[in-house]
Structures are given as structure tokens and as C-alpha cells.
Amino acid sequence: MSIIKNIFQNFRKPKNSFMGRCIVKMMNRGHNRISLWCIDNFVKLSGGETVLDIGCGGGQNVANFIKRTHGLVCGMDYSPTCVDIASRKNKAAISQGRASIVEANVSNIPFDDNRFDIVTAFETIYFWNDIVENFKEVLRVLKPEGRFYICNEAYSEEGNEKWVRNIDLRIYSPIEIQRMLEQAGFINVTYDISPESISQRICVQAKKQPDDETNRQMSINKYTPIHRVLTAYPQLIHRLVKRDSRYVSLINPVSTCTLGHCTTIESIAFTVGDDVETLLTYLKGEMEREDIQFKY
After folding, report:
1. In this predicted model, what pLDDT tens digit does every residue of 143-158 receive, in sequence order?
2. How many CB atoms lie within 10 A of CB 88?
3. Taking a C-beta distance cutoff of 8 angstroms, is the pair 183, 132 a contact?
4. pLDDT band at 196, cuts 50/70/90?
């Protein structure tokens, strides 16, 4: 391994060396802008949530969350160096019982089921080895209706070749992340992209299902994947085409399968040139008329 690549590996898993510790502290400062963009615009804590930050690095986001909630804030990282630096940074909160920093891997999160209101992952899923299974582990520790936030500074390898080459990371597009979260069992998966033209900053949000799913009335919005509606109500495809022939492509099983698992109601309306609110009103009316029940 070259000297340059050896240094860059500290961004993946910081070592207990002068360079490793410097990089951790540098990431605390360098990532804070994107972290606050996600925390203050999307997470928006109300003040009582319990929070787990996976891949907490030097603990800056643990400190950010402590300022915004009275609930317990836990940080987790697989680098012993990061755990040490994060623990030192949040020493006062840890001594008061308001925070905890643990060394662990996302493949085996050391917390009970249904433990946290919020789980976050800032600039870290690039390094997760079995990402769908890792997402399932996140789902396990979330409370019913708990929320998971992923915040990255890159969603395309283009322009990030140096990092891909030297750190061996995997960069995912927002659609790829959305699809894998749904595969893991999350619902209401949405994403936001920073309006800054020079940035690849994204925040992906997902939710755990409510606890009681028995005969729960289907609730949809423009972000609901179309395949969930069509699976619950197969006859709707033909009724939709009869109402508006622009939806004829949904009759094709291949098209339905291809679009269904990654396309929202908003996306399919845009694709065919329909108004999303008009489509939503129609779908909700049909479901109410048929008293459609399904497990969401």
C-alpha cells in the first residue's frame, strides 16, 4: 500500500496515530456544516428524543444532538480511536448520563430492539459491507415510527474519483439508497438534494412502521411507492387506465415490476404528465370506496 493510500485509509477507519487522530478532529470540523444542514432542516428534534449516531467519528454530532434534546444521545463507531476522541469531546455529558459512546460495528448494533426515536448516519454508509442487512439492523433498534436519516456529501462517483480510488468506498445515488431502505423494510422513504450547484449534498429520510399494523387503513401521499398501492389493489391498474390512457404502461407486468419498487406516486404522475394532486385524490377516493386495508 502506498504512503498516500495508507494516509487516506484513516478516513475509512482512523488509526491510533498522530495522522489518524488529526484526521478525526479535522472531520469533526469539516463535516459539521453538512451535519447541521441535515439536523436543522430535516431531523428537527423537538427536545425529548433518544438518538443513536452510527459512525460518530470524533463525536461532533453527538455534541450537536445533546444541545437539541434532553433524551439520551449515543454515538457508535468501529474505530477505537474515534470512540476515544468522541468520549473525550463529550466527557461532561457522559458523566451526567446524557450521552454514551460505544465501540461497535453496524452489523451488530449493541442495543435492544425498539430503543431509539432517531438513528443517524453521517458520511458513513460508503463503508458498510452488507448495506441492506445493516439497514435491517438499524430498523431493529428504532422504535415504531422512529426515523432514520442518512446524510452524504457525495451521490455520484463523478468528481469523487480520488476518494473512491484511495479509500475503497462505495457511493450510492439517492434512488439506490431509497430502494435498499425499502428492501430492508423502511417506509415513507424520501430524499432531499442541496440546491447548491457545486454540492452533492443529500439527506435521505426513512421511517419504521407503526407497531400495530392489524387492518390499518392505507395512508398514502405523493412519496408512497406506486407498487404498494397496486399490490393492495390490483384492479386499480385497469381502472386507472380506463380513466386516463397515459397510464397504459402499468398494465405491462415488466413495467409494473420495474417501476413499482423505486417509483413514487409523484414520479409516475410526472412521467405521464398528470397532476400529482389529481392522481392522489383519485387513488384515495378509490381506496375509500373499496375500503382497502393493507399492511403498510
Report:
1. 999 999 999 987 655 6
2. 12
3. yes
4. low
**C-alpha cell at position 83:** 470512540
- Strands (DSSP E) along the chain, which ranges? 51-54, 73-77, 99-103, 116-122, 142-152, 187-193, 202-207
Residue length, the chain?
Answer: 296
To the nearest whole percent, how much of the chain has pLDDT over 90?
Answer: 32
Element (H, E) at 162: helix 161-167
Q: Could you read off the pLDDT of 4-34 as tens digits, one per residue? A: 545 545 455 555 564 555 655 566 665 778 8
DSSP codes joined into one string, 250-282: GGSHHHHHHHHTT-BHHHHHHHHT--HHHHHHH
The secondary structure of 31-70 as a DSSP string is THHHHHHHIIIII---S---EEEET-TTSHHHHHHHTT-S
Give the CA angle between residues 68, 74, 78 to the nearest 5°. 135
- Which pLDDT belongs to residue 272? 84
Cell of 115: 430503543
Cell of 262: 423505486
Sign of CA dihedral 109, 113, 115, 119: positive
Sheet holding 142-152, edge to edge: 99-103, 73-77, 51-54, 116-122, 142-152, 202-207, 187-193
Distances in Å between the alpha carbon of 24 and those of 18, 47, 58, 94, 145?
A: 10, 28, 6, 20, 33
pLDDT(141) > 90: yes
CA distance 184 to 167: 26
